[in-house]
Amino acid sequence: MTTLDEIRRAAVARSLFPPTTLQRALNLFGFVQADPIRAPARAQDLTLRHRVSGYRAGDLERRYTTLDVHEDFFVNYGFVTSAVQALMHPRGGSTPWTAARGRHVRALLEFVRSRGAVHPREADSHFSHGTVTNYWGGASNATTHLLDQMHYRGLLKVVRREAGIRIYAVHEHGPKPGDASTRRARLDGLVDVTVGKYAPLPAASLSNLVRRLRFAAPQWVHQLDAALVRAKKRLAHARVDGVDWYWPPVDALDANQGEVRLLAPFDPIVWDRRRFEMLWGWAYRFEAYTPVPKRKLGYYALPLLWRDRVIGWANLSVRSGVLTSKVGYVASRPPRSPEFRRALDEELERFRLFLGLP
């Protein structure tokens, strides 16, 4: 890849692989970012619908217990395969609780172990730990908060959800890597998962993603700079218009040539806002948490990909069982070709089926 056009086509083609089974799509990605907002579907479903044959909104949650997948934190919170999770755990580093709190952790862990699977409400009724201030500044149940921390540390796993609430069980991991070479290999493996999903990456974005692995493996946070150096030596790369780009060595790929795709705000194609502006020449912003008067695109605008260009966005909603859409364009108007109009209609029809609308 020696031109920006080639990088743009590769960014689309690498990510939009031919639709396959749900498990194989998860294996190819290794990690799928999750988000609780449903507008009109959650981000993980919006991401998977392009890559999984016959995918319907909610399939990942419905089939969670039958899949090789775990809720966990990677560079963001989401779903990882067992192979990726094994690279991250057991997590070391400083624990997020005091020695006194550790007694609660051990008691809670034994409580979960004795019951097999536990709803946070059941644990709270047993321990009554009170409330704490959560990340958003509000009050959270202290037992639920501690269960979340134990889940992040790898002591617990999410076995399923009930009405959106995580149900926990005890989680056992293999031993810590005993030598430096094994630790480096694991960290390099995590870097490769990240690059494999989001490449081609400009150098600044590669650095940012590698440093975000501090969430996946806090025990190796001081080794991330060295992992970045190794990655730059290992990956294919080229300098284009004064910017260094990196990607895994791959065969030639065929870009999307004739379809419209409405992408999730966290889809791998658009996730890196820096790369987005470099490849498509305009700034996409996720505005769900932006005050209404300041929104320019909409509450949950879905980037609109036409062939290998992101040319606009769409806000979709369901009213009385009918899918409605409001589409905006960077050029203020849509392409004039009848092929585009037909492709957009086909994408909206696929979206309707994905949502299970009549």
Write the layout of secondary structure elements.
Elements (H helix, E strand, L loop, with lengths): L3 H12 L6 H8 L1 E3 L9 H6 L10 H4 L7 E4 L3 E4 L1 H7 L10 H17 L4 H8 L3 E3 L5 E3 H11 L3 E7 L2 E6 L9 H19 L2 E2 H14 L7 H11 L1 E5 L2 E5 L12 E3 L10 H8 L21 E5 L2 E11 L2 E8 L8 H18 L3
Antiparallel strand pairs: 1-3, 2-3, 4-5, 6-7, 8-10, 9-10, 11-12, 12-13, 13-14
Percent helix among the residues?
25-40%
Are there runs of 5+ residues with pLDDT below 50, and where? none
Number of helices: 13
**Major sheet description:** 4 strands, antiparallel
Adjacency order of strands in the biggest sheet: 11-12-13-14
Q: Which overall shape is indicated by the principal axes computed on the Cα atoms?
A: globular
The chain-level mean pLDDT equals 92
Structural class: alpha+beta
Multimerization state: single chain
Which series of helices and strands comes N to C? Answer: HHEHHEEHHHEEHEEHEHHEEEHEEEH
Alpha carbon gyration radius: 22 Å
Query: How many strands?
Result: 14
* Fraction in beta strands: 15-25%
Head-to-tail CA distance between termini: 44 Å
Task: Give a description of the structure.
- By secondary structure, the chain is α+β, with helices and mostly antiparallel strands.
- Among the domains are: 99-170, Arc Repressor Mutant, subunit A (Orthogonal Bundle); 180-247, Arc Repressor Mutant, subunit A (Orthogonal Bundle); 260-355, no CATH class.
- It contains 13 helices and 14 strands.
- It has helices at 4-15, 22-29, 43-48, 59-62, 82-88, 99-115, 120-127, 142-152, 180-198, 203-216, 224-234, 273-280, 338-355; strands spanning 31-33, 70-73, 77-80, 131-133, 139-141, 156-162, 165-170, 201-202, 236-240, 243-247, 260-262, 302-306, 309-319, 322-329.
- A four-stranded antiparallel sheet has the order 11-12-13-14. A three-stranded antiparallel sheet has the order 1-3-2. The chain has a three-stranded antiparallel sheet with strand order 8-10-9.
- β2 (70-73) and β3 (77-80) form a beta hairpin.
- α7 (120-127) packs across α8 (142-152).
- The N and C termini lie far apart (44 Å).
- The relative contact order is 0.13.
- The mean pLDDT is 92.
